[in-house]
Amino acid sequence: MRVAIDGMPLASPLTGIGHYTLELAKGLAAVSSTDDFALVSPAPFLPNAALEVKHNSLANLSQVNLKSNRLNRYWWGLRLPLYLTGSSFDLFHGTNYDIPRWSNVPSIVTIHDLSLLLHHHTHEARLVQRARRRLPAVARSARMIITGSDSVKREIVEHLKVRSERVAVTPYAQRSVFKPISLPESMDTRKRLGIEGDFILFVGTIEPRKGLLTLVDAYADLLRNSDLTPQLVIAGGKGWLMSDFMSSVSARGLEDRIRFTGYLADQDLAALYSSCAAFVYPSIYEGFGLPPLEAMACGAAVITTDIPVLRETVGTAACLVAPAGSDQLARAIANVMQDKSYRERLSRAGLEQSTRFSWERTARLTLDVYNEALRGGA
User: Fold this and answer.
1) Same-domain check for residues 123 and 219
2) How far apart are CA 58 and CA 24, in angstroms?
3) Which of 13, 44, 166, 334 is 20 to 30 A distant from 279 in Cα terms?
4) Handedness of CA 287, 289, 290, 291 (dihedral sign)
5) Which DSSP symbol is given to 168?
6) Is the pTM of this model over 0.85?
7) CB proximity list for 129: less than 8 A, separation 6 or greater
8) Does residue 178 lie within any of the structural domains?
9) Could you tell me if 88 and 34 lie in one domain?
10) Could you give the dihedral angle defined by the CA atoms of residues 147, 313, 357 and 176, in that order, rounded to the nearest 10 degrees?
């Protein structure tokens, strides 16, 4: 079997979908040495992503950067379909919600979540309009659909009118870099980032659906109503409505208490996950929820929202709070910081929960989907 995999998520700084694409491609090549896999993109891969593929010495995983020409602007509608038509691939896997508009090669697609449809108010209007137009067509055209959780599978079936048998769940996993780091080992990262003493950590893109306004309200309550004085560290790239969020921080007088690190390298993230007093993830909607799982793999005590998809990911190993409940979140943070035995129980439970996920398992489940698709789909 020869599979072309959408490599475009590796051409820009890696976030959730980029990491998914890279880890899945490496996992597939490792568990299925008799099959060939190619990451295909019209743009060059970032150097670190390209090097990671090469350094794994997987002879059956290649990178294909098609030479730039005027057809690249019509990637999904013309350039990619023409490339696949002239190739010997058996299957195309779109890892980022999209597949070729037409092709003689069957496609499967990963739909990570339906945030653009179900929480459209948290996204830019142009992206919402494209999703409303494109996602139903993709769901109809793909031979099979992959997603990371049962919760999102139910949403796809309901809102995209897809038969349940055509949607496969392949849970994602934390990457191997995320493991406990001792406090002394984490100090270089903390000093470089200006983090002193106890701190609360959030990791993710700064955007409305991540619940950061709730987190800031809870943090302000914590400082006002307790003797606790941790820093709040927000690690992630700038997203939509960043200016509104910063205005909210300023209005509460918290500019000097909140540390924005921007996008961080994996080793720095692992150091912060391992040394935070609590990892807090108040998201109102997720497709899977990788940051809480990464934090658990590093031994952090995790506080997150009680929504179906995050219950799938964290199980009973996290402190769950109601979405948008800043009072409850403030109390949860205080409990975790003040009760050492509770914090340690969450840490142990999280480490155990994280062992239930692996990219090898994700890759094997994905291979099953490929074989089902080549048999004609469900």
Assistant:
1) no
2) 13
3) 13
4) positive
5) E
6) yes
7) none
8) no
9) yes
10) 100
